[in-house]
Design brief:
Chain B: Belongs to the binding-protein-dependent transport system permease family. LivHM subfamily. The complex is a heterodimer of chains A (270) and B (297). Chain A is α/β, with parallel strands linked by helices. Chain A is 34% helix and 24% strand. Chain B has one domain: ABC transporter involved in vitamin B12 uptake, BtuC. The model of chain B has no long low-confidence stretch (mean pLDDT 85).
Chain lengths: 270, 297
């Protein structure tokens, strides 16, 4: 069965051929495998409904709050199986998901939101931790009102800051660019990369905005209808003709419809 | 106009109202974090008061031990009620949950009557003096006790929800359970904790009232009286519960004043909160501080 890339020693997170079923009938993921090596910034691209968010929720255990379950395959994190664990245990083991749509606690202040991020941690140095987060997001420091009144970009920053408070080994980001202006997207991606480099926190990022995501990523996976259809390093993907055509908006208009999504027909192990 | 009576009733109203406020907070705590409208809130008072009375009279324990035992018992009791009866109801229609709590209310009321009898019993003398003299006024110690209790509880709740780790987790759970679990908060622990705290604080309120009025099944009626307070404040607002409680307490006593001085209908005192409830529901269906959310009626 094992016919995957050999060069990576032991990935931090490894997903092996998982299937996800919602409400015991709806099959959403149909055999997804991917590896996230320690310290890297990996991005997961694909159209709506491809199962990107579901993959993240399968990792973070939040699937169980939506009546979904991993019905086949396994997910291991630092050599330990986590697909049977609940969300609380997974956060404690070092994976933190920044959910789609930011989902900050709107009727709390920034600081209270940040404190909640550190819920699973020792509460001793919490104020230092908050200061550390403010270094990445200086503009949050000035916001003393309720988080619900922050702008979309600030809410996204708060959501990432909240993840940092948990001191995770790995952050899962679900569409951090959603609803943000291009300038803010740039800023947010810049901060994500900075956190990745400075803190050594491994990132797994789901995006619609392929351009930004790939530019900042080390490695990328492309999903379509519940499967990984293509993967490769940043350079490989950026230079791939299919990726250029469908995700990056290439200017080669001569392709006929017949050749569209040619990679779909390519056989892929797992 | 009888100013002395009015003053006395106002003070009464304030003290009773603050107690209502505390019980309303307990009610809102459960509603907010677990979305359960707990019609058995009054029974928490009743059970707490009877259990404490039992430890003092039957077991002949000193007050502080009996009190601590009661608190421990109520914590377990709250958790057990949540785990056994209400956890299986998560996701069921709200009306089913309400029927469960009404059922629990009836069951425990009868159970208490069965165990402790139907007649009212008074608490043994807990403190040496029953009346203290403050600034020339003779004030019953129990009233001062109740006032202190209410204020301490409110300050405690404020601190708890503003600064404690568990309090913040409860607020997060109330806001969005999925987000709470994404932060590593165990939602079932939060549920258990809110029932435990609610049961414990309500029981203490029951003991305080029991010391003043004696213990009888009338205690559980206070749980019903807290409804107007909670609805006035808005079902999901803790501050609202407190304000609502004080307003209901004051209005109740004002009704008593008007009744005894002018109208002479009798018992307006008991009825007034429910008239207020009706009026509020017509004018402000979300209460004074409630979240304007159509799903949360």
């Amino acid at each position: 069965m094992e016919a995957r890339k050999i060069e990576t020693p032991e990935p931090l997170l490894s997903i092996n051929n998982i299937e996800v079923v919602y409400d015991e009938v709806i099959l959403v993921l149909r055999g997804v495998s991917l590896d996230v090596p320690q310290g890297q910034n990996v991005t997961l691209l694909g159209p709506n409904g491809a199962g990107k968010s579901t993959t993240l929720k399968a990792i973070s255990g939040l699937l169980k709050t939506e009546d979904g379950e991993v019905s086949r395959g396994e997910i291991s994190f630092m050599g330990e199986r986590i697909d049977k664990k609940n969300a609380e245990e997974i956060v404690r083991s070092g994976i933190f998901q920044v959910m789609e749509g930011r989902r900050i606690i709107e009727d709390m202040t920034c600081i209270e939101n940040l404190k909640l991020g550190a819920y699973t941690r020792n509460q001793k140095n919490i104020n230092n931790e908050i200061e550390r987060v403010f270094e990445y997001f200086p503009r949050l420091k000035e916001r003393t009102g309720l988080a619900g009144y922050l702008s979309g970009g600030e809410q996204q920053m708060l959501a990432i800051g909240r993840a940092l408070m948990a001191n995770p080994k790995m952050i899962l980001l679900d569409e951090p660019s959603m609803g943000l202006s291009p300038l803010l997207v740039k800023e947010v991606f810049g901060i994500i990369e900075k956190i990745n480099k400075e803190q050594g926190i491994t990132m797994l990022l789901v995006e619609q905005n392929a351009n930004f995501a790939l530019k900042h990523a080390d490695y990328g996976y492309i999903m379509e209808s519940g499967k990984v259809v293509l993967d490769g390093s940043r350079e490989e993907l950026l230079n791939n003709q299919d990726v250029k055509d469908f995700y990056l908006g290439g200017n080669d208009h001569n392709k006929s419809f017949k050749n569209l999504k040619s990679y779909k027909r390519r056989k892929r192990w797992l | 106009m009888n100013t002395e009576l009015l003053l006395q009733l106002t003070v009464n109203g304030l003290i009773v109202g603050l107690l209502y406020g505390v019980i309303a907070m307990c009610f809102v705590l459960i509603y907010k974090s677990t979305q359960v409208v707990n019609f058995a809130q009054g029974e928490f008072l009743l059970i707490g008061a009877w259990v404490c009375w039992g430890t003092l009279v039957w077991l002949d324990l000193p007050f502080y031990i009996g009190f601590l035992l009661t608190l421990g018992f109520m914590t377990l009791f709250g958790i057990l009620i949540q785990a056994v009866f209400l956890r299986p109801m998560i996701g069921e229609p709200i009306i089913s949950v309400i029927m469960i709590t009404i059922g629990l209310s009836m069951f425990f009321q009868s159970l208490m009557k069965w165990i402790f009898g139907v007649s009212a019993e008074s608490y043994p003398q807990v403190f040496e003096t029953s009346v203290v003299n403050i600034a020339g006024l003779n004030i019953e110690l129990a009233y001062i006790l109740s006032l202190i209790f209410s204020v301490v509880m409110m300050a405690g709740f404020y601190w708890f929800f503003k600064h404690s780790r568990m309090g913040l987790a409860m607020r997060a759970t109330a806001f969005d359970q999925q987000v709470a679990s994404s932060l590593g908060i165990s939602v079932s622990k939060v549920f258990a904790a809110s029932w435990a705290i609610s049961a414990m604080v309500s029981a203490t309120a029951g003991i305080v009232i029991g010391m003043v009025n004696g213990v009888s099944s009338a205690l559980s009626f206070i749980g019903i009286k807290v409804f107007p307070a909670v609805i006035l404040g808005g079902l999901d607002s803790i501050v609202g519960g407190v304000v609502g409680g004080v307003i209901i307490g004051l209005l109740e006593n004002l009704a008593e004043f008007i009744d005894s001085q002018y109208l002479h209908i009798g018992n307006l005192y008991t009825i007034a909160p429910f008239y207020i409830l009706l009026i509020i529901l017509t004018i402000k269906p979300y209460g004074l501080f409630g979240t304007r959310d159509i799903e949360r009626i």
